[in-house]
Amino acid sequence: MLISVHPRWIQERGLDMHSIVLEPDQPFDLDLTLSCGQVFGWEREGDAWRGVVGRDLVRIAQRGDRLSFSGADPSLIRHYFGLDLDLPEILSSIDRDPVIHRAITHCPGLRIVRQPAWECLASFICATYSSIPGIEKRVSLLRRHLGDPLPAGPPGSCSFPSPAAIAGADGCMLSGCSLGYRARYLSETARLVANDPGWEERIAALPYREARAELLRLRGVGKKVADCVLLFAFGKWEAFPVDVWIERIVKGCYPECRDFRTYDQIGEFGRSHFGRYAGYAQEYLFCYRGALAGRGNSARKRGA
DNA sequence: TCCCAGGCCGTCG
DNA sequence: CGACGGCATGGG
Known about the structure:
By secondary structure, the chain is an alpha+beta fold. Helices cover 49% and strands 9% of the residues. It contains 18 helices and five strands. The N and C termini lie far apart (60 Å). The structure holds a DNA duplex (13 and 12 nucleotides).
């Protein structure tokens, strides 16, 4: 019975297995949630996923309404994947037009992960002007070169490097992570955060706009990165990150937005149109970007 | 070899 | 403010 339900690694390790049975009215899709580009560093391992949350090596698999995992307590998993949020309630609140409706129906069970704040900030500083596979590579290199190896983990599995570890790394080491010109930004921001204990709690306690203003003071952090961190780490759902895809989708699918010029115009549209959970709407639009932005519809940043 | 990527920074009008 | 150009590197 156990054997047929659980993946192979459970038998091999035989250790702290847990499971969560999802409520029937609370959809969750692990694959979609981990592969949509909001969080970096999870790797597929057969039909399971392997990742590091804090200093815990987590393996997790989904079969139907059951999540099976090791390396973390159920409470942590619930918190990390936002399983205690009422997703149908959120989705019904943002389901205000045919475009978002399509995205919602095509991405069932997508949830926003609550990431560790520093990891999220550093990851998205590394993410600027890059493709998602490129970001995965950089984050993976950062872990291997500057993180702490996990005692019980397979070789190569490391915690995400602390601000101090990145701040203390020499330029050569950082350059070895394929960061390009972002190395300088990451290094500088790491130094600032390392010397500012309480940074995370301070941001968490601020309302969205003030929290964003605070993040914008950091090097390598513009409006887009700040919004990603506020959404993916701090759970500030008003954050509506505008990348090239979201810009394309909003301008292309919402006629009243066609001539928007600035970042904040699109962000304010998101908040006023979708409401308090605009960030969730953004994530669903992003996840379904392939269909919504279209292939031939290659509108450039400038002109065309 | 091309083009593009979950943008940011500095600078100029 | 708003609009550019430059930017290091990897993937398709």
